[in-house]
Every structure is written in structure tokens, then in C-alpha cells.
DNA sequence: CTATGTAATATGTATTACAAGTTTTTGGAA
DNA sequence: TTCCAAAAACTTGTAATACATATTACATAG
């Protein structure tokens, strides 16, 4: 026995053990979404633990989005949704947000968004077209000085195209970008003379291609757009660095 | 005031309020990673709540990976890492895993992996080359009948190339794929006569291009590889559907 | 200086009590 | 019988107390 002198104590607390047991049952669909868990009292008896430990376990599951708790009613297996999953990612990016991450995100957009536009051209529905079209009319209507509002509209343009791709994995992967951009809008979209017209033209061209289900054109136009955006950003960054 | 008659009761529990307060402080870096929180007793006095409510709040933060708790020592702001963030995503994919998701993932790989290979060719370090090379020699050495082991090696090949891209956002986005594939390996990589040699040739070609920092060749070779893999998968799927 | 024991301190678990929201039961009125 | 409202029963939320157990700091003996 090589582990003769291995630690005796179990590093896990009681509540963590209970948490894992219930989580496991949920993962294996033994407890389907929406189903009611036994009451605290019953669970205490079943696990043979105090209400303290049991409650802390269920607070853990609740915090992670796996269990809904309704006072006076009971505890239910939650319908674990994308937002729960993505919120953790956003928290991570939130904490690690720096100039390096912005560069990586810009790079990723250059790589991914043209392909996404192409896929969107193939899979778009009529509703997708309406959504995308609206962002363009909104952009045209947007006051030139409202930089924040403009950036949000542009952001929505890209998000709606991603949505039109119809690919859930792609949507989830890109979601952090669209959620983070409001925080770095001033870094990304430069407000230069004539920029608005150039951008609207790009958006319109991409929209037309997606409507015509012309994947290659959509891809190339989106490629030009994100490259253009990135250049504008780099120019702005250099100017900013010179000024200080 | 349109919310004159809105509910008076606060739907949030005490522990949730405390959770948010501390989370906010962590997000704003008022509590830097690694720093020690006040003791339970002190926090109880500061928030003017019972130990029960306070502990449940900290169990929530602990479950989410924001706070480390060491019995007998104290509570510390955790160094929130990628794994914490990704684990939530994995849980989501775990619960929503179905044939549709596999299709979306395959589609995403067709779109993204060629671009990733191109970027890897630009940014790869010597260590990246060693890691990628090893997966190829491992693949050659792998017994033809060990389907599981083979799939894991192939998976590592793709993961190491993604790592070589040097783009943190891309790595995080692709991570769920590499974590999920072990669950669907039998679906993805078909075991057909001569398949191994074809695959090794592709891997070698991609490796050479990455080593030579030839982005275009790496991109095109990876495109061929993932398309080949996808075709093999679809063939296998059709054959499987015919058999039943 | 080192090793060991001890006290102080921190978190983990259990128990009891009551508050407050929800659901079910009950019983009377129409 | 049917409907409705009050009451009871039940469920989760919060508080307070007690003790178990792990860690840390310090004192003491060698």
C-alpha cells in the first residue's frame, strides 16, 4: 500500500458532496428540468445531514443556475439556459479585460465573421432579413454624434448576422464579443469624416448578398468590412498613442 | 412613477444581496485576487446579518469559483480562471447534447479551423511545433484497433494547433469542442481501410506548413482535412441509418 | 534553534426557533 | 352541489447557539 500515509481527511465539505450528488442526477437527466425536488426536510432525512449542510448545497446549485428555489413552494430543477453558461464566460472576460484581449478579439473577428456571413447567406430566414435590415435603417437614422448609440447599432448588425447563421455553437462562441463590445466601443468604431457612408455601404452590400443567398459575396464583403474596421481602429490607436 | 404599485417584496434573498455586493467588489478589483476577506464574524457585523445568511452568500460565490474557502484559515478572493468559466459552458453543452449540436460543431470546425491553422502558422513557437509533432508520432504509433485512443490523439492534434494560434479568445471558443469530442468520438472519426494513412499525410502536411510559417498552405490543408473528416462522418452516418 | 504542545481563531455541521410565502384543506354561504 | 374565503399545513428564509475540526501563532522544553 503506497498510500498508507495518504491524507485521511476528505477535502470536500458535506455540502459539496451533496451538491455533486444532485448535480450528477441532473446531468444524467434522472432529475428532468422542471421537476420538483423533495423538500429540504425530506432531503435532510435522505442524505442524513443537517438542514444547514443541505441548504448550503442547494444554495450552491442555485447560484450556478442548476436549481430554482421558490420560497414557500419548493425547489425545482432549473432549465439551464445559455445565459447561465455564458455569464460565467463574461465574468472571466470581464476580469481579464485588457488591451491584449481586444487585439485577440479583433483578430478572431477577422477570421470568423466572413465565414459566418457566408453561412448566414445560406441559412437566413425572412425574419433574419427583417432584423438585419432594421439595424441598417437604424444606423442611417442615427445621429452622427451619438457615438455610443451608433456603436450599439453596428454591434447589433453583426449579432443579427451571426443569429442568421442558424448555428448554435457559432452564436454562443461569438456572444461574448457582442456583449463585451459595448465596453470597448470607443476603441473599436472610430468616428471619422465619411466613415458613416462607407460603413452603411458595406452593411447594405452584405445585406443584399445575404438576401440573395450569395455566400461568396457576403463572405468577401464582410471580410472587407472587418478589415476596414480593424484598420480604422489601429489608426485611431496610433493617433491616440502619439497624442500622449 | 409607473412602478407605483410594483411589488414591495424584494424577490432577492438576503444571501443573494450579499453575494452581489461582494461580487461587485471583486469585479471592480476593489478586492484583488488572492486577498483575504474579513472573517465570517466580521462580515456578519459589517452587513448586519446572521451567520446563516452570510455563509450561504459565500457558498454561492464559492460554487461559482469567485471565492476560495479554507477551513480554519479564512476566505480568499479566487483567481478566477478559464476552467471555471468554461465548465459552465461544458455543463450547458452536456445537457443540450444531441445530433443537432454535433452538426453545428462540425459546421463550425469547417468554418474556423482552416483560419486557425493559418494563424498558427504565423504565431507558432518552437514548443508548439514539438507538441504538434508529438501528436503525429503518437498517431502513427497508435494501434489501428484502438479507436478511442486514436480519436483522442487526433483531438489533441487539433487542440495543439489551436493553442499555437496564440489567440486566447480563439482557444476558449474552441475548447468546448475539444472537451466534447471524447463523447462523440465514435461519431466523428470513422475507422475505414486506408483512412489512417490519409489522415497522417494530412497531419504531416499541415505540420510542415506551420513549421514553414506558410499560412496559406496550412489553411488549405486544414480545410481539406476537416472536409475529409466531415465527409467520412456523413458517410458513416448514412450507412448507420441504412443498417437499422 | 528546533520540535512539540497549547491556546486562539476560523470555518464546518447540527439543532432549535420563528418569520414569511405558498399550497392545501376546511367549512360555510349561495 | 358549487364557489369562495378563512384557516391550517407546509415550504423556504433568517437568526441564534453550540460544538466539531482545521489552521495559525505562540510559548516552552530540549
Commentary on this structure:
2 copies of one chain form a homodimer. Chain A has 244 residues and is mainly alpha-helical. The first copy, chain A, folds into 2 domains: 14-77, Arc Repressor Mutant, subunit A (Orthogonal Bundle); 83-243, Four Helix Bundle (Hemerythrin (Met), subunit A) (Up-down Bundle). In chain A, 72% of the residues lie in helices and 3% in strands. Chain A has 10 helices and 2 strands. Chain A has helices at residues 14-27, 40-47, 51-63, 82-96, 99-123, 126-141, 147-164, 168-188, 195-211, 215-243, and strands at 67-70, 74-77. Chain A has a two-stranded antiparallel ribbon. The radius of gyration of chain A is 25 Å and the shape is elongated. The relative contact order of chain A is 0.10. Chains A and B meet through helix 1, helix 3, helix 4, helix 5 and helix 8 of A and helix 1, helix 3, helix 4, helix 5 and helix 8 of B. Chain A binds a DNA duplex (30 and 30 nucleotides) through residues 9, 13-15, 39-41, 49-53, 55-56, 69-75.
